[in-house]
Amino acid sequence: MTQTRVITVTSGKGGVGKTTTTANLGVALGKLGYRVVVIDTDIGLRNLDVLLGLQNRIIYDVVDLVEGRCRLQQALIRDRQIEELYLLPAAQSRDKSAISPTDMVRICDQLEGDCDFVLIDSPAGIELGFRNAIAAAQEFILVATPDPASVQDVDRVLGILESQGRTQYSLIINRVRPDLVRRKLMASPAQMLETLAIPLLGIVPEAEDVIISNGKGLPVAHDAQSLIGQAFSNTAKRLLGENVPYIPLLEGRRSLWTRLDPRRFFRS
Amino acid sequence: MDSAISIKGTREGLTITLGGGDTQKLYEDLSRHLKLQGAFFRGGVVALDVGKRTLDSERLCSFRDLLAQHTMTLRTVVTADPTTQSVADELGLRTIGSETPDEPEPQAQPEPQPQLERQPRPLAPQRPRASAPAPLASNPVLPRAEPIGQDDLRGLIVKRRIRAGQTVRHSGNIVVIGDVNVGAEIIAGGDVIVWGRLRGTVHAGYPEDASAMVCALDLAPLQLRLGTLIGRPEEAAGERGAIYPEVGRVRDGAIVVERWSGIHWGN
After folding, report:
1. When comparing pLDDT for B115 and A170, which is higher?
2. B109 and B9: one domain?
3. Is residue B255 situated within a structural domain?
4. Which of A203, B141, B201, B257 has the highest CB neighbour count under 10 A?
5. If residue B36 lies in a helix (H) or strand (E), which one and from where to where?
6. pLDDT tens digits, residue range A198-230?
7. If interface means Cβ-Cβ distance under 8 Å, which residues of chain B face chain A?
8. For every residue of B190-223, which 3-state class applies, written as one string?
9. Is residue B91 located within the same domain as residue B161?
10. Looking at B118, B144, B176, which one is the last position of a domain?
């Protein structure tokens, strides 16, 4: 029996890259040889299958599972390329009320011991869909872009998690534009961490690669040579407890990135 | 008094247990009871055991304010309900789950407490208890002489970061040790002191006390409200300059924010 880590990827705000992050972390961990199940809890607006290019293989979904029309093994879809990556898709019809937080706990209990990671992709918002997504997790990855609205929404989500005593969380800063940060037209990771005061897990720059790969249904993390693929693979390694240095995104501008040295932000 | 409420003295202070029944009725019963016997409990620190019921922020505040009217301080909420617990957390109160073993189980002692038990205890120094999570660190309470005045008892210390969407309300003064993030809200009947960055919305002297003030190590709230006045600090373009402690007060009918240095408090 392996120890299964159940991690929810959430953000409050929509469109910041939760699903992209979930898909790419799943791929990156899978490539490192871990057994990973990704679960889409955005019932009614499922997307994770599209990003993984698995939409044409869906037979059963999470609602079928909860309502007893299939077994867990039947609902899990194996990735096209990565041997040990599985998707539990959301339903396209229905809405968030089709499942409950208890259902999520039951599903994750069944997965316990059978895989190394369960990554739960949360819908935007803090309503029922969010409550479903966080119910079974012990750890949380918050995704924020440098947009102040996104930072504020992550702050709100952190407040909710803290009030429930769920304090195993870390931050991925997504869609950073180093040129704008340098010109002080975008919040720097350091400024975001000052507000949010949580450990940093990864910094992912904005890049066309992501748009292209999302269109192809082949997560960018497959391409370990690309900057973004590297950023996701580094993030996955940090999740495993490795101390991976951050990619210098600003050539010859060491002063700024010295200030961003994440080691300052890790507690203990 | 109605048997649904029990009040008893413990080493920590007073424990008020709300038994079964309608919460509004219990509130009224407690109010009546405190009017009759409130003098017994003057200056007491109170743990309110609400059992399994769910209390929203407004309701919990009503109990806290009721106790404050009788110069008692609500410090701890004993609850089995997670919603109530998070509400209490947000109000900066200490929370203890009902099932905590070292907390006397209220149902275990149903017999009414003898009158003597209700005597207020001298306030012993509060010791942090290893078993109880303390979101609000215990304030060391010095052996206290006679209270100087009622206002001195009305204070709330919140020792954590206040995040977006969280509200801290108190009828007296509020001290926050930590940052107040954008989207957070502090509402105090008296003054507000923030030992940290103040970025959210703050209302001191709520609803209409213009003598209240707000001070912070870094005073940059979205909105600063004092009594009935609303101020919006200048939206400085670009980087802010040097940061130093500041204080906001009402002067000649307008909100004035000044650097904290050489301020004389005489009127």
Report:
1. A170
2. yes
3. yes
4. A203
5. helix B23-37
6. 999 999 999 999 999 999 999 999 998 889 999
7. 82, 85-86, 89-90, 133, 161, 163-166, 179, 181-183, 199, 238-239
8. CCEEEEEEECCEEEECCCCCCCCCEEEEEECCCE
9. no
10. B118
In a domain, B134, yes or no: no
Q: B124 is written with which tokens?
A: 């012993």
| Same domain? B96 vs B160 | no
β-bridge mates for residue A179, sequence order: none
Classify residue B37: in a domain, yes or no: yes
Shortest Cα distance from A174 to chain B (angstroms)? 20
Domain count, chain B: 2
CA angle B166, B186, A156 (to 5 degrees): 20
Among B81, B91, B181, the residue to mutate for chain A (most A Cβ within 10 A): B181
Which of A42-46, B100-104, B142-146 is the least confident region? B100-104
Contacts of residue B37, Cβ cutoff 8 Å, sequence gap at least 6: B118
Residue of B235, B239, B213 lying closest to B224 (CA atoms): B213
Question: How many beta-carbon contacts under 8 Å exist across A and B?
Answer: 41
Residue B241 pLDDT greater than 80, yes or no: no
Asked if residue B140 is part of any domain, the answer here is no
Neighboring chain B residues of A182 at a CB cutoff of 8 Å: none
**Entry pTM:** 0.69
Interface membership of A197 toward B (CB under 8 Å): yes
Sequence spans of domains, chain A: 5-264
Domain extent at residue B228: 154-259
Rank A10-19, A211-220, B147-156 by mean pLDDT and report only the highest.
Answer: A10-19
The reply to whether B162 and B254 lie within a common domain is: yes
**What CATH number corresponds to the domain at position B236?**
2.160.20.70
Q: Give the closest-approach CA distance of B163 to chain A in angstroms.
A: 6
Hey, what are B23's tokens?
A: 């919460």
Residue B214 exposure: Cα atoms within 13 Å on the Cβ side: 35
Q: Considering the domain A5-264, what is its CATH architecture?
A: 3-Layer(aba) Sandwich (3.40)
Q: Verify that B109 and B162 share a domain, yes or no.
A: no
Contacting residues for B47 by C-beta, under 8 A, at least 6 apart: B10, B12, B13, B14, B15, B16, B75, B76, B77, B78, B96
Of B86, B163, B179, the CB nearest to A164: B86
End residue of a domain, out of B72, B90, B118? B118
